[in-house]
């Protein structure tokens, strides 16, 4: 089980890579299509003004918010010997919900659909932390 706890982390890294790739494909395509010079989008303010489709970039930034706590939870589970079936199931559920969130965010971007996936993933993450806290301190 100790190594298995890192598989969801690798899945999140893969998701982050896919979103990163999509972000650059979309940005380069728009820059070529609209003949935007790279220097004209050198700052975030310039980029926001010129690059109109920020879905993938927004999602990429989002993958460095709650997932930071996810990665830490997996490390704590591994080093404390708490990589149980429950921990692993919660980790995979979080990853699945983040995949759904990213898919919505990077494609049709319906806010309430995206919010539901984000919220559900957040709840799973807090349950994971509660489970780890219980396992660490209440035993």
UniProtKB/TrEMBL annotation:
Which keywords annotate this record? Membrane, Transmembrane, Transmembrane helix
Its annotated compartments are: Membrane
Q: Which domain of life is it from?
A: Bacteria
SUPFAM superfamilies membership: MAPEG domain-like
- Per the record, the major location class is membrane
Membrane-crossing ranges are: 6-25, 63-83, 89-108, 115-134
Q: What is this protein called?
A: MAPEG family protein
Biological source species: Luteimonas notoginsengisoli
């Amino acid at each position: 089980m100790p190594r298995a706890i890192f598989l969801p982390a690798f899945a999140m890294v893969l998701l982050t890579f896919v979103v990163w790739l999509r972000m650059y494909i979309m940005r380069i395509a728009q820059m070529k299509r609209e003949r935007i010079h790279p220097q004209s989008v050198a700052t975030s303010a310039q980029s926001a003004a010129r690059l109109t489709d920020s879905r993938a970039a927004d999602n990429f930034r989002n993958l460095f918010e709650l997932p930071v706590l996810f990665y830490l939870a997996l490390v704590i589970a591994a080093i404390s010997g708490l990589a149980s079936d429950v921990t692993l199931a919660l980790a995979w559920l979080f990853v699945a919900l983040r995949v759904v969130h990213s898919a919505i965010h990077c494609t049709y971007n319906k806010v309430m659909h995206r919010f539901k996936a984000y919220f559900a993933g957040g709840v799973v993450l807090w349950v994971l932390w509660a489970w780890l806290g219980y396992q660490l301190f209440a035993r």
